[in-house]
Write a structure and sequence with these properties.
heterodimer, A: 115 residues, mainly beta, B: 109 residues, six-stranded mixed sheet
Chain lengths: 115, 109
């Protein structure tokens, strides 16, 4: 079983809604990630937090807003999304961002459908 | 050219077959290498790290060739449960992880 937990597992939202995806890990990892994955494609990096600070934003539209309240929690706030934003959103963590040998551990993902 | 390229697949093999996947990377500064497995509608899970000396875990063997900048995954005695997409992941020394597009394996009875 994964040690990165994500909620909700499934989310359907309208284009005017505001919702949030949540992620939690208790492995003491100091780097946390959001990835987006479309069908038959690899995970695509969105954001990286290192020691609770945003260190990478891969030019993600502002309708996605990440937040890291503490070292164990990572949120992704969603507002005014488009149908093409429908995808699997994966949270992940690793010991730290800067070590090349770090293994990334993924949560089970949140399936998002924008209608 | 993509930073990480994998055999496009799909690979369809009978149970008991041996199958090998290759992955090439373009960044010579890449430091660490992994194979992940992803089942349909599930998250990627670490299968194995890949070390310069090569490493084996049961029926799975991973190799790294730094000179030619490729890694490989060999699966012996394929099982039905090995059917999945296999993702090659390459990390730079800045900690950036780059995923290959994945290779789909179907093992048939």
């Amino acid at each position: 079983d994964t040690e990165v937990t994500q909620t909700p597992k499934h989310l359907v939202m309208g284009m005017t809604n505001k919702k949030s995806l949540k992620c939690e890990q208790h492995m003491g990892h100091r780097a946390m990630y959001w990835y987006k994955q479309k069908a038959k494609k690899p995970p695509e990096l969105m954001f990286v937090y290192s020691y609770e600070k945003l260190s990478i934003n891969e030019s993600v539209p502002s309708r996605f807003s990440p937040e890291c309240p503490n070292s164990s929690l990572l949120n992704l706030h969603l507002h005014a999304l488009q149908p093409e934003d429908s995808a699997l959103y994966l949270c992940a963590s690793s010991q730290s961002r800067d070590r090349a040998g770090n293994t990334i551990y993924f949560g089970e993902g949140s399936w998002l459908t924008v209608v | 050219r993509k930073e990480v390229e994998q055999d496009p697949g799909p690979f369809n093999v009978p149970e008991g077959a041996t199958v090998a996947f290759n992955c090439t990377y373009s960044n010579s500064a890449s430091q660490s290498f992994f194979w992940y497995r992803q089942d349909c509608r599930k998250e990627p899970k670490l299968l194995m790290s890949v070390y310069s000396s090569g490493n084996e875990d049961g029926r799975f063997t991973a190799q790294l060739n730094r000179a030619s900048q490729y890694i490989s995954l060999l699966i012996r005695d394929s099982k039905l449960s090995d059917s999945a997409t296999y993702l090659c992941v390459v990390n730079t020394n800045a900690g950036k992880s780059t995923f290959g597009d994945g290779t789909t394996l179907t093992v048939k009875p």
